[in-house]
Specification:
The complex is a heterotrimer of chains A (284), B (252) and C (227). Chain A has 284 residues and is an all-alpha fold. Chain A has eleven helices and no strands. Chain B folds into two domains: 172 residues, Rossmann fold (3-Layer(aba) Sandwich); 69 residues, no CATH class. Helices cover 34% and strands 25% of the residues of chain B. Chain B is built from ten helices and ten strands. In chain B, helix 3 packs across helix 4, helix 3 packs parallel to helix 6 and helix 6 runs parallel beside helix 7. The longest helix of chain B has 14 residues. Chain B starts with 6 loop residues before the first strand and ends in a 5-residue tail after the last helix. In chain C, 85% of the residues lie in helices and 0% in strands. Chain C has 227 residues and is mostly helical. The chains are: A mainly alpha (284), B alpha/beta (252), C mainly alpha (227). At the A-B interface, helix 7 and helix 8 of A face helix 2, helix 3 and helix 6 of B.
């Protein structure tokens, strides 16, 4: 009797483990197939010229997405410049002093906004920046991306800062360190690891958005170094290439997609390396 | 001729919202000695401690009234900067709380660095670690993470950190309650050495620790200071019946 | 206020108290019997008293052990501490009082073998007096009554006076009749033992005052010199 139930239990244990393993494989499958697809279709089109040259008209061979890479990079940089301080700052505010009506309103707004479709964000940016400026611009594109980053960054920052134990804050205050310095130098520093991940996620999302850029930065076939002009971006370029009827443009779309993936991947690795470096300064 | 008290508390009241948790507390803390604060759970002893360095008012809805005089200066006077006073009245907490992202060295130096100190940090860090009886154990690994130390060592690190800003009074809120008996004994020995330079007030729920360690004892019950006096008297022949009952284990 | 939260501790303290009282009772009985053995020249009673001292000694050991155990395991404070340290001290006095009863019984054996002396009313009176002193001291202990203990301390003068009277009478007797010297000396020793018995009762009373009030009232004369 006891032996039999033991055998049954062991069997069930193994069966469920196998089942879970299968689920993992199932979950990894789309990711794997995506990577496989992009890499296999995109690699043929990757040349040095692809990274550095301008797009060519239909029919002409060669050309690349150099300006789109620059455009994406510059607009994401602008988005970070604006979005990271505001998003993280809002998160810290909500965590430390957000327990009243105003704080609740801000929190609610952030939650609502983080669920708004990105195309709507694009339209908002159109109304706020493009119309007054009477032109499409990289500035508007960057700001649209910032608007996208801020709500989720604020909420994640708030969660992370709340996770920092009260005892650390108390220890700092008890040393005669002012409140604001405590928040900045102690609390944020402790939450830094998590914040970096949150920021990276926000940046990766921003780099991969297409819809908001459609109404703000538009696109540009030429090199552009001015923020007040329409700016090319990898995502819009991929869109344009992909919906076209031309075979070689489709090839370029795959390659551009691969470039985008590589860019985001590199960013991730660089940031993790930087984090490990700063943690290694403090040996365990 | 006895020295004037280092800290003089006059009619201190403390509230959490509408709850009156400390009533009319009046007590003198003698200098360069250890005063222990004992009493059953919820009697207000931790609140009392936190009123001495104005940490109590940091809790939303909390406030206090009355006077707390440090060398004659009222800490609750208008215009007194609580941040500044916390450098004169330091605190060590129940659970060791070193800054996790910083090394041992940086932890000790934190209070000074973040307050713009520009002198010789190395000398200060060494001095404080020696005073906290931790130097010998960590001198070869100052750049290691603070979390690599044991619980007892972390608590001594927190003491060193508190000493670095050169306080005059050191408040200790059940500093050894999270530690094993050997670590506890080390902390108690440390307190004996520290009282030659600092005035120490310690809250403890362990009566035997209060008996071992302190020169004076204050017994709190339900938010009131019931009795205070030399430790020996409190534990051999207290004046108040409530003190007698608590100390002999009839309640609490 | 209810007793100690730890009921086992409460019980241990009660048992200690009961043991001391049992010991006190036995010592009271022993002294009464030993003096009766002297006045009635009853050697058999004397032997019984000597045999029963074993009990008293056993109780002393038990009380000592109990006190040591309580000190080690309970870290007693305030009134509990004073009670236990008092117990440690008075158990010594009680054991010595038991020994004094044995000593008197030895004298009783000697005297029983010889022809009787003059009737010894005063000896019985002295015995009654010191017995009452012990009883009052033990009552003061049980009732935690320092005033009663102080009465015991004051009663010492009477004991000393009565002893002196007996001493002088016996001295007179020895001077009148040299054949009575041996018996008179034995009787004198018995009286001395009774006087010492009274002194131990005083010690007991002094410890009771300390236990209740927390002030040490022993050796008033030396303390007066020191202060």
């Amino acid at each position: 009797m006891i032996l039999r139930s033991h055998l049954v239990r062991t069997f069930v244990n193994h069966a469920v483990t196998v089942l879970c393993g299968l689920m993992v494989l199932l979950a990894l499958f789309p990711l794997g197939s995506l990577l496989w697809l992009v890499v296999s279709k995109g690699v043929p089109g990757l040349t040095f010229a692809f990274f550095t040259s301008l797009p060519t008209p239909v029919g002409e061979a060669g050309g690349g997405v150099g300006n789109a890479i620059l455009g994406t990079a510059s607009m994401v940089a602008l988005a970070c410049l604006v979005g990271l301080p505001i998003g993280i700052g809002a998160g810290v505010f909500l965590a430390e002093r957000g327990d009243h009506a105003f704080g609740r309103t801000v929190r609610f707004t952030a939650e609502v906004f983080s669920g708004v479709p990105s195309i709507v964000i694009g339209i908002v940016a159109y109304g706020l920046v493009v119309l007054p400026m009477r032109r499409f611009s990289g500035l508007a594109g960057g700001l649209a991306l910032a608007l996208l980053m801020i709500p989720s960054l604020a909420r994640t920052t708030e969660e992370l800062v709340r996770l920092v134990p009260v005892s650390l804050r108390e220890a700092s205050l008890a040393l005669g360190i002012a409140q604001w310095k405590t928040s900045l130098r102690i609390v944020l520093r402790t939450a830094a690891g998590g914040l970096l991940t949150a920021a990276l996620l926000a940046i990766a999302r921003a780099a991969g958005e297409t819809a908001p850029l459609l109404f703000t930065a538009l696109n540009n076939q030429y090199w552009n170094f001015r923020p007040d002009q329409p700016t090319a971006s990898l995502t819009v370029q991929i869109f344009n290439y992909a919906i076209s009827p031309y075979e070689d443009w489709h090839q370029k779309a795959w390659s551009a997609a691969l470039v985008l993936l590589l860019l985001v991947g590199l960013l991730n690795l660089a940031a993790r390396y930087a984090l490990r470096k700063s943690a290694a300064g403090v040996r365990t | 001729m006895t020295a004037p008290p280092k800290v003089k508390v006059e009619k201190l009241q403390a509230y959490f919202g509408n709850r009156h948790v400390l009533r009319d507390v009046t007590i003198d803390v003698p200098p360069l000695s250890i005063t222990s604060v004992i009493g059953p759970s919820g009697c207000g002893k931790s609140t009392f401690l936190r009123c001495l360095n104005r940490m109590h008012e940091l809790v939303p809805g909390a406030r206090s009234e009355g006077r707390v005089l440090l060398d004659g200066e009222n800490l609750y006077e208008r215009g007194v900067d609580p941040v500044h006073l916390r450098r004169r009245v330091g605190m060590v907490f129940q659970r060791p709380n070193p800054f996790p992202t910083m090394s041992i060295y940086d932890n000790v130096a934190a209070g000074l660095k973040l307050n713009g100190f520009r002198g010789d940090l190395d000398e200060t860090v060494e001095r404080c670690l020696i005073q906290a009886a931790l130097w010998e154990e960590v001198k070869d690994r100052l750049r290691h993470s603070a979390l690599s130390l044991s619980g007892g060592q972390q608590q001594r690190l927190c003491i060193a950190r508190a000493l670095a800003v050169e306080p005059e009074v050191l408040l200790m809120d059940e500093p050894a309650s999270a530690l094993d008996p050997v670590a506890t004994a080390k902390i108690e020995e440390l307190m004996h050495e520290l009282k030659e330079r600092y005035t120490i007030v310690i809250v403890t729920h362990n009566m035997q620790q209060a008996a071992r360690v302190s020169d004076h004892t204050a017994f709190f019950y339900l938010g009131e200071l019931v009795e205070t006096g030399p430790t020996e008297k409190i534990f051999t022949n207290p004046d108040e019946q409530r003190t007698e009952d608590y100390v002999t284990g009839k309640f609490g | 206020m209810a007793g100690h939260t730890d009921k086992t501790y409460e019980l241990e303290l009660k048992e200690l108290r009961d043991r001391l009282l049992t010991m006190g009772g036995k010592v009271e009985a022993a002294i009464a019997a030993s003096v009766r053995a002297v006045t009635e020249r009853d050697a058999e009673l004397a032997q019984k008293v000597k045999a029963s001292d074993v009990e008293v000694n056993r109780l002393e050991v038990e009380v000592d052990n109990a006190c040591r155990r309580l000190l080690a395991l309970r870290q007693p404070a305030a009134s509990d501490l004073r009670f236990i340290t008092t117990a440690l001290k008075i158990v010594t006095d009680l054991e010595r009082m038991g020994d004094l009863a044995v000593n008197i019984s030895d004298r009783a054996v000697d005297l029983a073998q010889a022809p009787p002396l003059r009737p010894l009313h005063d000896l019985s009176s002295l015995a009654d007096l010191v017995e009452a002193q012990l009883k009052k001291a033990l009552d003061a202990f049980v009732e935690r009554d320092p005033e009663k203990a102080e009465e015991v301390m004051k009663g010492d003068d009477l004991v000393d006076a009565l002893y002196l009277k007996i001493f002088n009478e016996l001295l007179q007797l020895m001077m009148e009749d040299s054949r009575a010297i041996r018996r008179a000396t034995a009787t004198m020793f018995a009286a001395k033992h009774l006087e010492r018995f009274g002194d131990h009762a005083i010690n007991l009373a002094e410890m009771v005052v300390y236990m209740v009030r927390g002030t040490d009232v022993r050796h008033p004369r030396s303390r007066a010199v020191a202060e």
